[in-house]
Amino acid sequence: MISEDYKKHFKANFRLAFPVILSQLGHIMVNVVDSMMVGQLGTVPLAAASLSNSIFTVILVFGLGISYGITPLVAAADGRKNKNRISLLLINGVMVSVITGVILFLAGYLLSPYLYFLDQPEAVVALTIPYLNICFFSLIPLMVFQGFKQFAEGLSLTKQSMYISVFANALNIIGNYILIYGKFGAPALGFIGAAISTLLARVIMAGIMGIYILYSEELKPYRLHWERQFISMLYMFRIVKLGFPISVQMLFEMGAFSFSAVMIGWLGAKELAAHQIAISIASVTYMMASGIAAAATIRVGNLFGQGYISEMRSAGFISFIMAVAFMSVCGLILIIAKNFIPQLYIQDQEVITLAAGLLIIAALFQISDGVQVVGLGALRGLEDVKVPSIISLLAYWVLGLPMGYILCFRLGFGVNGIWTGLLAGLSLAALLIFLRFKKLSLVK
């Protein structure tokens, strides 16, 4: 029998997690839909989508990590009913997000010409660079959205960003159809059309989320300091101090997946296209699990701020249980649909066969992926962000990638070898992060 205490925490976690899951799903479905629609153009465009998303993700997660520093600070201040502090976190959190977005755009734009040095198929790189530059520019409105979104989530307001993300994803699908294929009198822009559609959707997301935060009546008490003179280097430093290690941890994790795509690119365009299919599906389940992680951050941070340590610990553990249950179902679906899913992207039988094999490996690491992302969320609620970065470094760069390289290029397992290395890295990360929360929640 499940205790009443755990039932209570499950309900509270689910109320927070469900809207965030849909919101995160909206985020990642932009890339999935882009890949599906671009895949109809052929193997090379789909391979370019894989390389583009791999590079873009590395830059993106750094920005997301910085913005994630806002939520636990707001949640803790909300637990203490400190409206003045929450108000200062609003203006300074958005300011940090905007500055981060501009810096990341400039960094990505200046570095994109160096993709030719990654020894990828030349036709793939030629398509990738202009697409990437537009995506990098879209980071500015996306980070504006993130600043407002993470603030709202810190106050346990998760439904608004869900509605906005779902709406923006619908707009992106329509935009893709019009701009990729040249419908309703628009020029057929192909691969580039997907990037332009994504940019427009992200501008709209940022605008709607900003209007909600700045004009809704329920958030009026937190707009007290929405003036220039209340921009505080101290508050911005506090957000960055918490967010930067989160960014580093995410860079180690996502960077490993991105570098695996570079290694797969050494094998050829078909392997890279298969990787894009499998990783886009794995990203969907990951982002949905990260909705549970966001709820864990909010609940753990809020209860920790109120000093309810036992309640905080229970809220964290029920989050792990939710992740294991959800990701087990996802893994089963991937196994059952392994041959069907690739056909949604492409008709090349060789690519479909390769992708089906990768989806089996993806199914095997679903539980590990869910446990590690939820554990990271719970630890953020405790403002523990440095040790998880070290865990990610060890799991992915000391174990996962070297193991994948050896299995692929030394032992001849090909693309499956690289993915097996990722499976090993995720499993180690999940174990260590769970043990870290178990220990730290007792100490706290």
Describe it for me?
This protein has 444 residues and is mainly α. The chain has one domain. Helix content is 83%, strand content 0%. It contains 14 helices and no strands. Helix 5 packs parallel to helix 7 and helix 11 packs parallel to helix 14.
Note the gap between the termini: 28 Å
Q: Please tell me what the overall shape is.
A: globular
Extract low-pLDDT stretches.
none
Order of helices and strands: HHHHHHHHHHHHHH
Per DSSP E runs of 2 or more residues, the count of β-strands stands at 0
Structural class: mainly alpha
Q: What is the helix tally?
A: 14
Q: What percent of residues adopt helix (DSSP H or I)?
A: over 70%
Please outline the major beta sheet: none
Overall mean pLDDT stands at: 87
Q: Report the portion of residues in β strands.
A: under 5%
For the record, the count of structural domains works out to: 1
Supply the key terms.
444 residues, mainly alpha, 14 helices, single chain, globular
Write a compact overview of the structure shown.
The chain has about 450 residues and is an all-alpha fold. It has helices spanning about 5-40, 45-70, 70-80, 85-110, 120-155, 160-180, 190-215, 235-265, 270-305, 310-335, 350-365, 365-380, 385-410, 415-444. About 85% of the residues lie in helices and about 0% in strands.
